[in-house]
Design goal:
Shape: globular
Number of helices: 7
CATH topology: Chloramphenicol Acetyltransferase
Number of strands: 12
Strand content: 15-25%
Order of helices and strands: EEEHEHHEEEEHHEEEHHE
Strand order of the largest sheet: 6-5-9-10-11-4-12
Length: about 350
Amino acid sequence: MLTGLVPAIGQPDGDGDGDATRLPLLAVQANLFECGGMAIGLNFSHRVVDGTTSSAFISCWAKTALDDCHDDQAPFMVPKFDAASYFPPLDFLNSSQPSPPNLVGIKYITKRFVFDASRIATLQSHLSIATAPHAPTRVLVVSALIWKCAMEASSKSSNIPLGSRPSSFKMAMDLRRRFEPPFPQNLGGNVVANLVVVATPSLLKGQEENDDETIDLKDLVAKLRKGLEQQKETYPTKLPFDSIKAWQWDQECQKLTGNVDMYHLCPGSWCRFPFYEANFGLGKPAWVSIPSIGLKDLVILIDKRDGKGIEAMLSVSEEIMEHFESNPELLKYASVNPKVM
């Protein structure tokens, strides 16, 4: 039985000089265990792959291994790397690029937080807003809760009052379904745009005069939902594609998330990708996960095997993690690194 599938997007190991011609775009490792189990690890270069592309590649590979590529009912998609025909490239050589943050001396660790389907349903019920046409999605409520707890943990670890600085939430939006007509799901590359929502100190509420300030989670969910929907509506999604406007949008996002006076969280959702359908001939995976990330303030969400629960891989500094993983509100809905099987 195939016991594990571990996809990851990042920079494959290399000589560290950043030369794309000298680094592999894909690295694969098969791990065989004495019990008869197997784990397959994949590492894609983010220069050419996003979550949708990696999912299409894995589905294609698995169907090829099963010689099942002619099954009309199978989600078999060969990635096609022709995104440049939709998105005309621009000359960025003369444009200014943001300086990378100075992370010397800071150690970032990754931990796994698991939200079971029943707890997510309880959270959704608690956060349902009467004025909204639909209940908030499971990805939205889990993201909002993690953002809230991360802001509180950052405030405690830095001794900066919670109500004294804003926070940003930057999420990647898959553009394939946003266009009319939609692009094919096997369109390869990084077909994404960044959306940034800012929580201002006005969202913070003090309960009593001497109490610590807290964030109202319902208000945060409403803010997050409204902000993401508004940006999805205003992002350029018509052909011919307005590359200049999209580039200006991205520059504004980078400027905002580069503000050192704010706390920034960068989440990504790999939910609803068919990773658990990847059968290479030994059965479907028992567990699909993302390895330790080790990057600054990043969280990746991925489905549990039942397709209803969510696993969150959070990477923050050791100081923030100490406060985050002990947050009572978080522990009402999430388990910290429970057993896989």
